[in-house]
Amino acid sequence: MPKKDKKRHSICMVSDFFYPNMGGVESHIFQLSQCLLELSHKVVVITHMYNNRNGVRYMTNGLKVYYIPLVPFYNQCVLPTVLTTLPIIRDILIREQITIVHGHSAFSVLAEETLYHAKLLGLKLVYTDHSLFGFADASSILTNKLLECGMSISDHVICVSNTCRENTFLRANIKDPRKISVIPNAVDSSIFTPEPNTAPFNRIVIVVVSRLVYRKGTDLLIGIIPEICKKYPNVDFLIAGSGPKMVLIEEIKDRYKLHDRVTLLGSIPNQEVRNCLVKGHIFLNTSLTEAFCIAILEAASCGLQVVSTKVGGIPEILPNSMITLCEPSVSDLITKVEFAIKRIKTGDKIDSFMMHEEIRKMYNWRDVAKRTEKVYNLISEMNEKNSLIDKIIRYFKLF
């Protein structure tokens, strides 16, 4: 039998979080879009304006990005209005002949509103959840109700870990578990390569790449830095990232006179993350909640020893031989960091290039794109079947 032609989709990725803002969601959207373009699908991205970046921009491989003229209101998200975004979103979806709208992040107001507009246009909807939420506090209750509205109209939901899937299933009150798939994040192993000669030989460098906010456990990091620096004079900290908690780290530097031991790089562009990672020996993640955490994959791909809190979906990411997990407490984090420092001092180092090769085999964006493509095909076939059933029903109603 002749091989059936591959179905091409016209996809719109939409989220409040995209470049030049840095983070896991931003990286996910960009990498997934690039791989879907390789598979011959049409992909455009809709996000809000960032400073002077407004209008249409083209990125690598012709990825078209609409920076629509909406100013961020809170935490990089636009003000929820529902109707205000309708004219411009509708115009883009019709102009680009979009067939599938793919929203990202439960935090994103723009993604939620675009899904509502797309549903009115009869388009197929996919929602990817990248976060974990609680159920008790007022913020979580409100967010979960909004998420339930978005999920209820979506044709399929994707989660980045099994923990995230269970959390989303309960938060969004989804009735059919078959509606949710787990497709993990990945890492571009061609960029995040080890370079052992970059790290200093006479000192041990602990690298932190994270937004400096409460959710990322910056308060735990503040408790760790003075203790480790006091016990180990040859250990330094290299911190990349910015946020409201950055001022607290500055205070710690001043109080304990650690200006030459703790380096704050601030927010760095994505292309500089690898160069920052290879300057260190240990990667430290102190997050209080994580659905996945791409930063851990990037560090492991660069051959660093990873020490991380055991929260959310983090235990699913790497085997125990590649990561040291600990409870989200200052005392346990210090114990596990000391264990990693002793491993380096005793020469019990991991083979960075072997680790890089294992990560390359386990996590690949092209594999993520192929699995996402199957979701697109599934919901498109459902649409075709439903259309056929509707035609049959209308036919018999004539008699």
TrEMBL record:
Protein name in UniProt: phosphatidylinositol N-acetylglucosaminyltransferase
The organism's taxonomic lineage, starting at the top: Eukaryota, Metazoa, Spiralia, Gnathifera, Rotifera
Superkingdom of this protein's organism: Eukaryota
BP terms from Gene Ontology: GPI anchor biosynthetic process
Source species: Brachionus plicatilis (Marine rotifer)
Pathway linked to the protein: Glycolipid biosynthesis; glycosylphosphatidylinositol-anchor biosynthesis
GO molecular function terms attached to this record: phosphatidylinositol N-acetylglucosaminyltransferase activity
Chain ranges of the PIGA GPI anchor biosynthesis domain: 48-137
Annotated InterPro entries: Glyco_trans_1, PIG-A/GPI3, PIGA_GPI_anchor_biosynthesis
